[in-house]
Amino acid sequence: MIETVWGVKWPVPSAIEMVLIILVVLLVLAFLILFRYNHYLQKKKMHAEQLFLFKTKQLGLSNYQIKILNGLANMLKLKDSINILQNPDLFELSLGSFLPFLREQEELQESLHQISIDIIKTYEKLYHGKSVKKTLDRLTDLETDILLCFFTEENDVFIGRVIGNKDKMLSVKLFRNPGEYRDFAGKPIRVYLWRKGDAEYTFDTAIATVENKLIGIPLPDVFTRGEEERHPYIDTIISCIITELKAEEEAGLGEAVQINGTIYKMNEFEAIVRVAEKLDYEKSYSLQFELSEFKINITSKVISDRTITEESVSYYTFRLLEMSDPARNILTKYIQERL
């Protein structure tokens, strides 16, 4: 026994009791450390999920497309889903097992078609989100490294990446087991693709060649351009000069009339301009303004107008047709920073 200064006697613990006390203290400390570490991991996971959601929303993905992307990331068992946002190889790796997985879940064929289309849109928004594409005049102008999907007469769906476009023939790498399409040569298909900044396209053709994971798809002259991608306007107050572009034979007969205006709203493809003068739908115009100390000159055409009689002003919507690559890059960056 140990006698204290207050006269209270404490029992002296045995060696076994000391060991048990130390073990209890260590267990309490270990519990506290594990609790704090688990709290740190949960907090880190929450921040990662918030960052993932913020990034995907910033790229313009819908809630349904974010859900699909999460499913692809889970299929790969990624510790951090954000890794798939910068790595198209991870995205493509997951597709080989994702569609068969959905079929095992007995998804309706219509759902598989819609999911495939959303997968293509998600891919384009993630990895080609900063590119601005002109409207296709012919399919031979289609760029490579984009995804497409095609539907067979049996309503099966396949997704692939365009790796070549030559001599009116697309070379497409499919993300499915080659045994599923080994006998597809000559098979009629309907192809669907979606281009960021442009629109969706569909066309009917037949598979020409099948070699391992590559198939050859002939490009027809006839295709359908579907729903255009919506581009939100940003509000602006940018002074501009509008100049009529005259025909070559009229060049040199005098200076063209310049009209002062104000760009009221704009996106990457259109600009709404406030002017006091009347403009002609049949004519092309040069739209000149300055962004980030860079002078921009864009060939444009009027596609709609709205006049406010009380103010004696008109609001013309211009379709932005032609501009230099540096001008397009500056314009795109300016708009994306303000969305």
Describe this structure in words.
With 339 residues, this protein is α+β, with helices and mostly antiparallel strands. Among the domains are: 125-228, Pnp Oxidase, Chain A (Roll); 234-336, predicted glycosyltransferase like domains (Thrombin, subunit H). Helices cover 32% and strands 33% of the residues. It is built from six helices and 16 strands. Helix 2 crosses helix 4 (88-104) and helix 4 (88-104) packs antiparallel against helix 5 (109-127). It is flat, with a radius of gyration of 31 Å. The protein starts with a strand and ends with a helix.
Fourth CATH level, the homologous superfamily of the domain at 125-228: Electron Transport, Fmn-binding Protein, Chain A
Count the beta strands: 16
CATH class of the domain at 125-228: Mainly Beta
Helix count from the secondary structure assignment: 6
At the fold tier of CATH, the topology name of the domain at 125-228 is Pnp Oxidase, Chain A
Range of helix content: 25-40%
- Per CATH, the architecture of the domain at 125-228 is Roll
| Shape summary | flat
List the uncertain runs. Answer: 247-251
The overall pLDDT, averaged over residues, is: 83
Rg from alpha-carbon coordinates = 31 Å
Which structural class best describes the helix and strand composition? alpha+beta
Key words describing this protein structure:
Thrombin, subunit H, eight-stranded antiparallel sheet, 339 residues, Pnp Oxidase, Chain A, six-stranded antiparallel β-barrel
In short:
The chain has 339 residues and is an alpha+beta fold.
